[in-house]
Amino acid sequence: MRFLKGHGTENDFVILPDPDGELELSASLVAAICDRRAGIGADGVLRVVRTKVSPEVSDLAGEAEWFMDYRNSDGSVAEMCGNGTRVFARHLVDAGLAQPGEFAIATRGGLRRVSLDVSGDVTVDMGLPVVHGRSVAMVAGQEFEGLHVDMGNPHLACAIGEPVVQLDLTHQPGFDPGVFPSGVNVELFNAVGPARAVMRVYERGSAETRACGTGAVATAVAAAALSGETTGSWTIEVVGGTLTVTLTGDTSYLAGPAVIVAAGELMLAE
Ligand SMILES: N[C@@H](CCC[C@H](N)C(=O)O)C(=O)O
């Protein structure tokens, strides 16, 4: 099986081209591929499959030729992945499967429009963030309150007082299962200046990652709310680089670099 490896601000993915949807991608195979010692190593897998042969999203086939089938590194399925969408778009263009410029990608969270610019940055229209109210996360024995933001997938973005670099994010934060019955991605951030935040994230299904695109948008929404704003452009510093989030009131955009770094043949099998 051919694979590629790519990342967006060091949120890294194994890309599996499977245009006709022939691959049986079990949770255990995904976990084996993402294993950083015994596999290739990644935060998740992006299966590249034609939308029309993907029953989950085949209704989107008229608008998007390709479906990003995203899996977390533990093999679980997620609705959306912002950085994954950007890396997926980069792969489609590099592989000649899409024209540079603007096009749509099908995800479980719906259609996402992407555009590539000459600098190499990829921007995704992430849709309108949906704010559900406040909830709490327990991180290393401390309780933090945050904003519950739905980006297609669930987020709890918490502004905290202590520097995020000092946090112990080794373990899955505690959360209210009544609020998040399918789990949650937890962002911890420091608002560090006008329209700028430093963020770390513990992702559902993947542990701490060096960036999370949907989490960056959730963080921008929570940081904007702190200063009574709902629109504007936010710089989100993540462990793996810098992302730009623009909130328009009607939708949100996520922009940043996305690169393919390797290609090869996968020897792992079920
Ligand atoms: N890294 C992603 C989010 C991936 C999915 C997430 N772990 C979930 O289970 O919802 C991003 O860049 O958005």
UniProtKB/TrEMBL annotation:
It catalyses: (2S,6S)-2,6-diaminopimelate = meso-2,6-diaminopimelate. It is an enzyme of class 5 (isomerase). Keywords: Amino-acid biosynthesis, Cytoplasm, Isomerase, Lysine biosynthesis. The keyword Hydrolase does not apply. Pfam families: DAP_epimerase. The keyword Cytoplasm applies. It comes from the Bacteria. GO terms for biological process: lysine biosynthetic process via diaminopimelate. The record marks H155, E203 as: Could be important to modulate the pK values of the two catalytic cysteine residues. It is found in: Cytoplasm. Substrate binds at N11, N72, G82, N83, N153, N185, E203, R204, G213, T214. Pathway: Amino-acid biosynthesis; L-lysine biosynthesis via DAP pathway; DL-2,6-diaminopimelate from LL-2,6-diaminopimelate: step 1/1. Its EC number is 5.1.1.7. Belongs to the diaminopimelate epimerase family. Catalyzes the stereoinversion of LL-2,6-diaminopimelate (L,L-DAP) to meso-diaminopimelate (meso-DAP), a precursor of L-lysine and an essential component of the bacterial peptidoglycan. Homodimer. This is Diaminopimelate epimerase. The gene is dapF.
